[in-house]
Amino acid sequence: MQSKRSRVLVKFSGEALAGENGFGIDTKILGFIASEIRSLVENKIEVGIVIGGGNIIRGVSAAQDGVIRRTSADYMGMLATVINAVAMQEALEHAGLDVRVQSAIELKEICESYIYRRAIRHLEKGRVVIFGAGTGNPFFTTDTAATLRAIEIGANMIIKATKVDGVYDKDPNKFSDAKKLDTLSYEEALDDRIKVMDDTAIALAKDNRLPIVVCNMFKAGNLLKIIQGDNGLCSVVGQRQ
Ligand code: UDP
To answer: 59 C-alpha to center of ligand 1: Å?
Structure first.
């Protein structure tokens, strides 16, 4: 039932949308990301997207002083991801693409609810699908949600789009001798010193042999080149299919 065409899940943090403001949503950044995604669709790549919510609220921080309980704070975080998803939908439509937002929490006046088979139909028709509200469960992250959705839709890879060009053995901002790791095993990615994604997300990817590609999304053309096979511009956890 699933097509053999290239299908990817692109995950980026909410902070990526905030730009220099550090909070909220910068429409220039939305526009840039939309043009990058459009180049993928024009090359017949099917695209699912998961966006974090950290530019608006993070559960752990909101619950820090004990006034807001963690569970409620996490639901607030999930709602934040839907705000970002709706903003991204607008920008992608502005760029001429067909888009659907599917939320893991029912918000029927705003978007579709997540239905796996429906998501696949959208992708097959060339529509970009943005998966909002994370997994729909507190105590998870959008990295885990993105990995889960990637596996469900049969994506060839999950692309963790960041501001750096891959995974380093130590923080490249602090250590001048930090080395980029071109390929890593899932076990290496689970090492606490290596920051790829949280352990739940990596374990899920490992169990399902889903390759995780870490790259810089802010260099024009990068996403397309990487999906087309340029491994020099990224780090790959697991084996690319
Ligand atoms: N969240 C959650 N369950 C999920 C996904 C997200 O509870 O399945 C909440 C959690 O509070 C998290 C917030 O939504 O802090 C925003 O997501 P995340 O921190 O992953 O965003 P990012 O750091 O990628 O911007």
So the answer is: 7
Using the atom order of ligand 1, give the atom closest to the CA of residue 73: 11
Residues at CB less than 6 angstroms from ligand 1: 13-15, 52-54, 58-59, 73-74, 77-78, 80-81, 134-135, 137-138, 140-142, 145
Taking the centre of ligand 1 as the mean of its atom positions, its distance from the CA of residue 8, in whole angstroms, is 21
Please give the domain boundaries of the chain with CATH numbers for all domains. 4-237 (3.40.1160.10)
Helices (H) and strands (E) in the chain, counts: 9, 11
d(CA 12, CA 220) in angstroms, rounded, equals: 15
**Separation of first and last alpha carbons in the chain:** 19
43 C-alpha to center of ligand 1: Å? Answer: 31
- The beta strand positions in the chain, using DSSP E, are 7-12, 46-51, 99-103, 112-113, 128-132, 157-162, 167-168, 180-181, 183-184, 212-216, 234-237
Contacts of 59 (CB under 8 A, 6+ apart): 70, 73, 74, 76, 77, 138
CA 201 – ligand 1 centroid, Å: 12
* pLDDT profile of the chain (241 residues), mean per 10: 75 92 92 98 98 97 97 98 98 98 98 98 98 98 98 98 91 88 95 90 97 95 95 92 70
Can you tell me which atom of ligand 1 is nearest the CA of 61? 15
For residue 209, the cross-strand partners are none
According to the model, what pLDDT value does residue 4 have?
56
The token pair at 181 is: 């790791």
Report the predicted TM-score, pTM, of the whole model to 2 decimal places.
0.96
